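S.,

Sequence below, as promised.
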Amino acid sequence: MQPQWEPTERDIADARITDFARFAEARTGVAAADYRALWQWSVDDLTGFWHAVWDYFELGQIGGEVLASAEMPGARWFPDTRLNYVDQVVRRFRTDRPAIVQVTEDGPLREVSWTELIDGTAAFARTLRSLGVRAGDRVAGYLPNIPEAVIAFLATASIGAVWSACGQDYSPKAALDRLGQLEPTVLVTADGYRFGGKAHDKRDDIAALQTGLGSLKATVAVSQLGLEVADTLSWREATANAETTAAIIETAAVDFDHPLWIVFSSGTTGLPKGIVHGHGGVLLEHLKAIALQADIGTDDTFFWYTSPSWMMWNFQIAGLLVGATIVCYDGSPTYPTPDALWHNAAQVGATVLGTSPGYVLACIKAGAVPRTDHDLSALRQVGITGSSLPPSSAVWLGDNVGAHVQVASISGGTDVVSAFIGGARTVPTWPGELSAPYLGVALDAFDTDGNPVRDEVGELVVTKPMPSMPVRFWNDPDGTRYHDAYFDMFPGVWRHGDWITITDRGSVIVHGRSDSTLNRHGIRMGSADIYQAVERLPEITEALVIGAEQPDGGYWMPLFVVLTPGTELTDELKTRINTTIRTEVSPRHVPDEILVAPGIPHTRTGKKLEVPIKKLFQGADPARVVERSAVDNPDLLDWYAALR
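The prediction came back faster than expected:
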């Protein structure tokens, strides 16, 4: 297979990762002739690599050891070093370009200067202290993706308090399931948001949160819709003590693993798990991922379509760590037209744009041609995550966005609030494949016996610790839940729960979740391969496949399809679906039955609910199989339950 995109000599020479390789070679003598050699060194010598990252980004004096213990779980990074994530943001202060650009559905662009960012952070930090917030206390956000959310997070982190947030598309119950576990001291919210051309008044939901969060001392409300929110301190009041010039933020020096934020699992079964990450681990991992892997720097505008409910919101803030401009957008990517996201990217001059395979497919079906309809001359990279990007979609991006644009799919998770696998400016990309493991990630693929495999499907594992692995789970005092989540199958080795294939050239193919594996006649298959084939058909909006073991020993593998308006599931269409799967995937992937569904249920971060639907068809109680507040359209669950 030929690469879809290959770096030029100039790409390689100018890449930040090339400069880092020279830096590492000068201090260690390591011969890093290419990316693979650099990666091999980074996992063979974790201490040397992460020490080099620390020094390359000039993060200051290390207090002692880099890695005191490599045991998983329980690795101890930089145990005697104190720091604060926010210090790195302050260091990047500049006056020649904005820190944040806010895009809205119905208004002009708003630029937030670095002075406004730093002053606002310092002012809100003073307000938090005046409200009694101290290091270790939790500050909760119930917010759209707006600059005030970024400022509130930075202010919280600067005083050593702990940030956690979810978007306002979450119902009060779903938000309480998450934020209520944390007993937050302050709630930061907004009167509402606009999405798809409609204003969403959230005042009733805010009142419900205030009632449900008995630990609150205060609520601060940002005005987005111009509505009056009762029993709150306005954002304007909370930041009224901002200086007229860049203020010095009084940051609290904290331990390397002091909690920075708490992000949550999808919460489809029981309460969502609160995943705690530390200041130092996030800082190091995000500098590596943003600067070395994505090559984002001071000249970039970094725009990832995301929400405070999703770890990509946290990841995008890392653009500030390298002096880039980041973009906040809380509207729909398809309003008022299917290609609205490309319009927004052109409007802000995005150099790196992040989106999902689902959005790319929607653009394909809408006949969008972004490169001719929008000025994307500044764009050099499209990031993709959330699920696997089909090869055909990667090719479409090259043809319709620009052959010069690198398509950099990444795969990681909320668990490490970063990626395990992705691209680099010095590595080619192949359609349907992720270019390489990230530096410092000891990635492997294991069979069920724990043996490494190549060019065949295996479990995604990480055999050595990463600094951004969770410090712990919230309310997990003995670490049992944390251990069981990642280390139960292969002791001492992180099992992530994805099926992957590592190719002979070092690239990686992601096949989908291993906990929803299709296993026909002992052959393990990934659902993502089926979706890539079926969802390209013009009659199919979306699909869901499950494999359910039956009480009699049989195995039932139905394919649920959502059809475009006016389409019927004729025998001819069934034949075409099966033929497509048979020829583009394999005969083993052909379903036992094709059923028309009114929709596909997802988590609120967009992942299909394969496992809960499978459990429904195996006779599980619908009330226990999934937490309805964690589902984007919970009424769909009733349809699937009735079909059993």
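Residues 114-130 form the longest helix (17 residues).

Coffee later?
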